[in-house]
Design brief:
Elements lengths: L4 E2 L7 E2 H8 L7 H16 L3 H11 L4 H14 L1 H13 L7 H14 L4 H22 L1 H7 L1
Antiparallel strand pairs: 1-2
Length: 148
């Protein structure tokens, strides 16, 4: 099951496929390994490793909370490399009750990845306001019909 090998951030080669598999480890004992793998994938993604970024983006939308959490921390380490794909996923995720947890994780990862980027933060705020408005429509159906 090997993945792309990288030496972007250390003298030792890293198998991102193995890191992605470790991040998906569902065992309780795997929590430390899972989080560590998320961070390692984030460092690889920050160094330009597209496969590492794809593992993290897949993980953030996982049904498993533990995998989403590991991916969220990895994406925060990936920094600016993760901002555009995260913004795209936020924009494409419908603000339904079923998606609120995923949207929350996406927005948290985006906020962490976009540290100190004024332009990106202003877009993030505008997107958050838009999402809050959409979510309020789902929470209060009577408002939707009165605004139509």
């Amino acid at each position: 099951m090997g993945g792309q090998k990288s030496k972007a951030n250390s003298d030792e080669s890293v198998d991102v496929g193995e890191l992605g598999a470790a991040m998906r480890d569902a065992t309780v004992a795997g929590e430390q390994l899972r989080i560590g793998s998320g961070y390692s994938l984030g460092r690889e993604a920050a160094g330009g490793n597209a496969e590492a970024l794809m593992h993290l983006l897949g993980g953030i939308e996982s049904a498993a909370e533990a995998e989403r959490r590991a991916a969220m921390w990895g994406l925060s380490v990936a920094g600016s490399t993760a901002v555009a794909p995260l913004m795209e996923r936020v924009a494409l995720t419908p603000p339904t009750h079923e998606n609120l947890e995923t949207l929350s994780d996406l927005l948290l990862a985006l906020g962490e990845a976009a540290v100190c980027k004024i332009v990106i933060l202003s877009r993030f705020v505008a997107l958050s306001v838009s999402l809050n408005q959409k979510v309020s429509l789902f929470q209060h159906p009577s408002r939707r019909s009165s605004t139509l």
